[in-house]
């Protein structure tokens, strides 16, 4: 289990935990990020301040703080 911010581009896995306080937690749930959802890391900015992920067919841009609070169990991570 590791946060999205520690996953390489192309990494896929299942969300196992979201460690965030409101209102961030509510925002993540409203975007469709919830425990058990499938997630793929698509890209990030050079400074790793913004992460682009895909969850259940929806592309989502997350700030670093938000991405660091979403933990996944990686299934396949391409280096």
Automatic annotation (TrEMBL):
Residues 2-74 form the Ferrous iron transporter FeoA-like domain. Transmembrane segments: none annotated. The keyword Cell membrane does not apply. Gene3D superfamilies: 2.30.30.90. The keyword Iron applies. Keywords: Iron. InterPro entries: Fe-transptr_FeoA-like, FeoA_core_dom, Transcriptional_repressor_C. This is Ferrous iron transporter FeoA-like domain-containing protein. The lineage of its organism: Bacteria, Pseudomonadati, Campylobacterota, Epsilonproteobacteria, Campylobacterales.
